[in-house]
Amino acid sequence: MRNLFVAIIAGMTIWMCAPEARAQIDVVTSAGGKPGFISSANCAKCHLDIHTYWKDSLHAGALSDNIFQAAFMLALKENGDGVREICLDCHAPTTTVTNDIMMKLPLTAEAITCDFCHRISSLNLEGKQAKVTLTTGAEKYGPLRAGKSADSHPSVQSSLFIDSKICATCHQWNNPQGVAVFDTYREWLNGPYAAKGVNCQSCHMPLVEGAIVTGKGREERQMINSHNLSGGHSIVQVASAGKVRVVSVSQVPGGLHAVVEVSNAGSGHMIPTGIPSRALVLEVQLVDSKGVMVESDEHKFERVILDKDHNPLTNDADIILNGAIVSKDNRIPPGGSVQIPFDFAASPRQRYLVRATLHYSYRPLLLKEEEINIGMGSDSKSP
Ligand code: HEC
Ligand code: HEC
Ligand code: HEC
Ligand code: HEC
Ligand code: HEC
Fold this sequence. Notes:
This protein is an alpha+beta fold. It folds into 2 domains: about 5-40 and about 55-165, no CATH class; about 235-380, Immunoglobulins (Immunoglobulin-like, Sandwich). Helices cover about 20% and strands about 30% of the residues. The chain has 13 helices and 19 strands. The chain has helices spanning about 40-45, 50-55, 65-80, 85-90, 95-100, 105-110, 115, 165-170, 185-190, 190-195, 200-205, 235-240, 315-320, and strands at about 5-10, 25-30, 120-125, 130-135, 140, 155, 170-175, 180-185, 205-210, 225, 240-250, 255-265, 280-290, 295-300, 305, 325-330, 335-345, 350-360, 370-380. It has a 4-stranded mixed beta sheet with strand order 2-1-4-3. It has a 4-stranded antiparallel beta sheet with strand order 14-13-18-19. The N and C termini lie far apart (about 60 Å). One heme C (HEC) binds near residues 59, 65, 200, 201 and 231.
């Protein structure tokens, strides 16, 4: 089984050869051979502003990222060297062509590099894997226009670049057990944003100031699409996504009854999305008139994935490879909201305040375990 299927074309001819001996991917090569990927350093000579955004992105860091490295090492240790290709297909996709699974080439270290995305000439998402067709030619595919850059490389305009499908190549994937570990594209497709024509790029690659082509006085257009792709690691983007509101607090025999609403206001897919070790945590506290917290309760929005014997899986690598059963999924869909009831024991003669706080929590396995916790807002109300 493969998760990415790369076909390479030269001109309009597709030649099918015997699949190479990769466990996860069959590479279909053309008569003209393989594309000679060009380093992002070369692109930076003319596209410096775009390169500056990209080099700090998690796409550029998809291999060097500590969190990935720790998970990758664990995956190899526990599941054997054969899983290398599975991880590298998405985290260093040029390896699907170069077969550099021992990560010796400098190109591999560029992870999700310019020349992988901008060689994509077509995609087929219908099968079990994304089938990616890459060009071996010098032309770059992009959203702008054809032909203009005669001094550097020809350009081909492609609507794929303003389509969420190009992102689904890696942000939608069923593991060998058939669990959609990465389900972001489908969550988006089933939500309100797809219908409104708001694609992944609208939120993750917004227009920012910069020149498409830099140098030699060519800074003519002052806007570029941000290639930084801020997501779960961007505090601003996470904080804008979830909203919390204390809807009501009422006295009931023996205590207080509170209803708290959490909504997914700004995210184009479930929150949280992607890798299942991310959770949204709603913490609700009962505070007395002196400001002292007397009781607290918690509600977690998350997707829990178990192995085939119903054992919990505790790290990213294990979930990706061995997840087999989705035992819980109460995440909040895009545009949706949920109301959660809370009951507290409280004396009828005291005055209280109910305070609700929403956190985004992510507990990746690092060499030293670290927790990332981002406050998303809070609200409070008295009976
Ligand atoms: C010698 C300068 C130069 C180099 C090096 C260069 N480009 Fe370009 N590129 C241009 C120019 C000029 C344009 C046309 C800009 C326009 O249409 O306004 C362009 C356009 C593009 C476009 C837009 C195509 C479209 O029509 O949508 C993409 C994508 C692109 N380049 C990718 C790359 C990548 C990837 C690399 C590195 C492998 C690269 N370029 C290297 C000069 C360069
Ligand atoms: C070739 C595979 C691939 C493609 C194509 C791809 N991504 Fe990614 N993306 C990844 C990987 C792998 C990561 C995780 C990198 C890491 O943290 O190790 C990632 C991370 C991200 C993140 C998370 C950043 C964060 O802060 O958590 C966002 C957002 C994102 N991608 C959006 C997009 C969008 C939008 C597109 C389409 C324009 C896209 N991606 C296309 C593989 C891909
Ligand atoms: C994950 C795939 C991906 C990677 C990696 C990537 N791009 Fe892009 N690029 C896109 C998409 C998608 C667009 C179109 C965004 C839109 O129009 O909404 C784009 C647009 C462009 C454009 C057209 C101008 C613009 O701002 O829209 C240029 C030029 C370009 N990219 C160059 C580069 C260079 C240079 C790199 C590396 C430094 C790079 N890209 C890396 C996907 C990628
Ligand atoms: C309406 C805006 C919007 C759209 C459309 C959108 N996203 Fe997001 N995305 C967000 C926000 C806000 C966050 C941060 C909160 C969260 O994790 O959901 C985010 C987070 C992410 C993350 C990081 C997950 C994490 O928790 O670290 C990834 C990956 C991602 N988006 C990919 C995509 C892809 C792929 C698409 C298209 C299929 C897409 N997004 C469409 C707004 C959007
Ligand atoms: C189908 C593509 C795909 C495959 C295969 C894949 N990943 Fe990823 N990985 C992603 C994407 C996309 C993200 C971005 C975040 C998200 O969606 O949660 C990611 C994120 C991660 C993260 C979180 C990184 C961070 O900075 O938060 C880790 C760790 C990770 N992957 C490890 C692995 C390991 C180990 C393997 C192999 C067993 C693997 N991945 C296979 C696409 C893939």
